[in-house]
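Moderator note: this is an archived Q&A kept for reference. The question asked for a predicted structure of one protein chain; the sequence and the answer are reproduced below.
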Amino acid sequence: MFQKMKNIDTAFRYIRLVSVVFITGTLLLCVFVVAKSYQASQQSQQRIFILANGKAIEAFAAERKENIPVEAKDHVKMFHHYFFSLDPDDKVIQQHISKALYLADRSAKEQYDNLKENGYFASVISGNISQEIEADSIEVNINQYPFYFRYTGKQRIIRPASIVTRLLITEGYLRSVARSDHNPHGFLIEKWRTISNQDIQTQNR
């Protein structure tokens, strides 16, 4: 009788031990699953997929300060592209200048007004002139705000009888503003001025 009771007590303890181990293991597994799910959720928020040419390309989110040099250089590059890439078509000129002026303050508008007043854009149209620009270097100092930049590039002026290559050097400052469709990088060029714009090569066509 006592032996039977002892066996029952031993079996009960064994079942209790197994139950405790099972419940503990289940709780640990639940904690592990929840932790992994949270980690996966955080990682998924750091991933962005961009649709380009019908293909989904994965991009990775990063802190704004990590991207400042890259975004600042691209902002400066795109501004100069729009401002100096011209064709003998008034509509194209207006479209490019309009895009450029979204990226800069009144210093760019003043230069545009001066060029327009001097008949530069009219001569581009009447002379069937195309103008291209290629960046050689873009220096941005992010150690002091607003960020100073210096742009160096080559400007090609394609005329019916010749192609003139000019060295273009400009400088200015970048101030942070809200991002928008017209200003995706969220910078505004200030105090923009041309340091040098001189002919370096002329070739006949």
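Archived answer notes: The beta strands are 47-52, 55-60, 130-141, 147-158, 162-176, 187-204.
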